[in-house]
Amino acid sequence: MRFGLNYHRYQVPEWAPFYVPYPLLKKLLKTAIRAADPATNQPDFKEVYTCLEHNINSFGIFHHENYDILRQRVEELHNQLAPKSKTLSKTKDINCYELENILKAVIELRKDSEKLQWYYRVNKEAVQRIYAKLEKLCRSTGHTDEGHKVKWTDLEADRDVSWLKYTGSLNELMTAIIQIRSDMKIQSGNKSCLDNTSSHLSASSDPIRALDRAVIDDDVPKLSKMLEETYSCNTTTSQCFQEIVYDLAGSSVVYGSKRAAAFLLSETFSRYHITLDHRILNQMIIISGRQQAFEEYTASRMCSQCSCKDSCGKSESNLFSLAVEQLALGGKDVLLEKDAFGRHPLHYGAIYGLPGICELLLDLSQKSGQEYPARLIMSLDSQRFTPLHYAVINNHALVIKAFLKALEPMMQTNDESSKYILIDILRDLLAIAIKYHHGETALYVAARSGKEEYVDMLLKHGSFPDLDIPETVHGWTPLFIACVEGHHAVAKLLLDAAAKQDIHDYSGWTAKEHAAPIRRNTQSFRTDCHYLIINLGVLQSGKQVKAVELRERSPKELISMNAGFLMEISISERGSIRELVELPSLTDMTHEPFVFPVTDPDRAWLSFKFLQASSTLAKEYNLLGGGTALIGSPGDHFGENRESLIRERTVPILEKDTLDVLGKVTFTFVISKPISYRAIPLARPLVVEEGVQLVGHRGLGQNTASHSYLQIGENTIESFLLASKQGATIVEFGNTTSHESYLACALKFRTDIPIHDLNLDQFMHASNIQSPRGDPVSVLGKANAQPISTQVTSTKPRSRSLTKDHERGTREIRDRMKYTVDFVSKGFKPNTRGDFIQDSFTTLEELLEELPESISFNIEIKYPRLHEAIEAGVAPVAIEINTFIDKALERLFSYGNKKRTIILSSFTPEICILLAIKQQTYPVMFITNAGKPPVTDREMRAASIQSAVRFAKRWNLSGLVFASEALVMCPRLVRYVQRSGLICGSYGSQNNIPENAKTQAAAGIDIIMADRVGLIAMSLKGYQKQAKSQA
């Protein structure tokens, strides 16, 4: 779904109407599936195929039209580099100023070529995704695709052949330019670039060549004298002479000879009755525009003569003003004349964003009549774009303002037809500016962007009827898209403006259900093998890091105009699989990691190779460069069996010949190592009993600052026994590892020293120091068990009523803890005497041995997480993750009772992944904060309910446990999770409210984790009794 949501972002805005409508095709696909006959379960995809084939045809036509325009431009540039005109071609020199202008034109053409290539790439991705979905559905239902894909395959093949030919031609052109630049050997001395070229004819041997040289030298007196001589000698016809002068004027613009250009345009044209037309005007605008747009790409040392011309004389705008003055009364016809691309001068002024030139043209046209400026602004070129279109497309605000000001009289006219034409064009422009073509309002697009200030402005100055208008593909209103994209501030603004919350989209979902936001991969893993799991990019939201970043290329490197880049990812082991990624990637890779089997990770390395499509052979690729990353454990940096919680790595990509940096690749990885346990027990499938399973959170409940009810110390044997007695079928406890790898039942950051940096004695001392002497009576009404030897040898302690020595330990531990980050933020420490009924801390082994087998366990594997370490103010370092998991699994395999149901769970995605790979004995559930405010967990795999479902399905987990806020607000999400084949549970303070527990039970939830076990058990029992009576 992420590709569909981001589809508008991948589009070239002005071409948006000509894209294959991927969201619409997905909608038709889902409609066909829902409408399938239940008896046969055979969907009718006829409408999908018809729509797809029609849009493929439209896409092909549009692509071919733009390809032809690019091909024409390449031919024009070839002609400029090797001109064939009758006047100046035979003796034409080329100087560095002209060469730089041609180079800028080629760079501009390359950018437009890349735009068309990107257009093709996005459409290709969309079409292939739809065909892949159709083929998958056809296989599952026994249908055949009946050859529907043949037309698309043929179009792909033809396009690839023509594009290779085109890129080859463009490469030749760029190579020729670079070669000429090299041959000129431009130096910083007083030489002209023409003095460095080979075997030129002398100026005196050819009058036309001499004229051309005078223009290049920008020598007006010499040029004037030579023109007089040429005209008076009658060596050419009058028409031929006029053509020579016209060509000289064009050359003066190209050469940057501004004095010569001013002389020719202002004096010579009028003296010899030469008409100024749109060609020179267009040329002047284009050269001026390219000078500003592509200066950084072509900045190089010119010869002293060209550098002098570049900095002296009239500016381009003054020169253009001079040319416009020559148009006089006939100017209106010249301004409306179009070139081969259907464009007039104002089109080019708008394309390059030259407000001064655009205003000059509009002022001149207004002299011919009030309607002429509007005619110019709304004139269409061969691509059906007006100058106003181009100003919006290229984001030239000053030009847009000038155009709108010129259009004001048209809006005040009584001519209704003109008004309608203008309104249609403005509506079209708005669609380009905000990228909508499926009924999205401006408010919808602003909400989608997440720009709070835009939404606020539209709500204050816009039309409120737009507030609940849905777009046509999904049926989403602005509130829907704000919720889908997770824009909290925007959603609040819309709700404050009274946006409706009870609207359902075409799938039957409400905005709330989207706010608490697939393939199933049943890949089997060997328990005796290492695996390297790699995600491209980062997995923490908020980091502005691209997975693949390429640097800007120099003109020399621009020679290699290509049909696309690919990246090959592989491991340095023989027989390793190789993964190809087309760049830039259009796929959300969060839930599509690469998994490589590895024999020896300490000696292996990860290789990234950048490939480029060949310009001569289809399906052939040339190596550009590569990079390598060692994947062995960097534990030596942090101590034995320690590793960083930051799993991201960045690798520079080096060019294969020069070793220059081409770019960089950022990836996130984790290594799964096989557990060395002698005999892993067989899998124990999780059987979910009918009705809701009540789980005691940390036993009888998590300790809180509230004193409204009695609280037993959390994660203690006493607490677990009491939870079971009050109605919990499962008890949940957190399990972490001490310094010497003992498994303790505690949280990760209770002190300012992480648990994994304490040994077991240090950890238990915080509990023992508070414990009273003697044998306190259990809350359950019986004495705590002690070995017989202890009972015999112990002496009767002094009566507690006669001393307060037992309170010293409590005060001591409280004083030690009160300045820790956790105590300062909460005002207490869990399981401390004085605040709670304290009991000794316990270990996993004790729980497995001492608790009755009728009590099921939900063991949360508490591995430190990056955002928690930052919040706790400790270093982001932990026990090596494989060591951490293996110790827990070894204890479970050794002490686990076969009759006891045990569930493993974790908030840490990497823990869930490794548990799923290392063993199939116990079911694994992923716990997520999705939908729980405030958002502190930046983990992208837990960013929404939908994302968590994808993660669980990808790694074949048993279920998910969500923050209860989301499920209480949107109970139907329970069924969404269960329809994906997953068990659904919830946790959090909302579960301590009986009505909320009943709401979730009514929705069919499988597991509810609560602190108020007795209260919720009674509530659920009453609900189930009532439900049975009503059945």
From TrEMBL:
Domain of life: Eukaryota
Domain SPX: 1-148
Keywords, alphabetical: ANK repeat, Hydrolase, Repeat
Positions of the UniProt region annotated as Disordered: 786-809
SMART domains registered for this protein in UniProt: ANK (SM00248)
Biased composition (Polar residues): 786-796
Protein name as catalogued: Glycerophosphoryl diester phosphodiesterase
Organism encoding this protein: Aspergillus oryzae
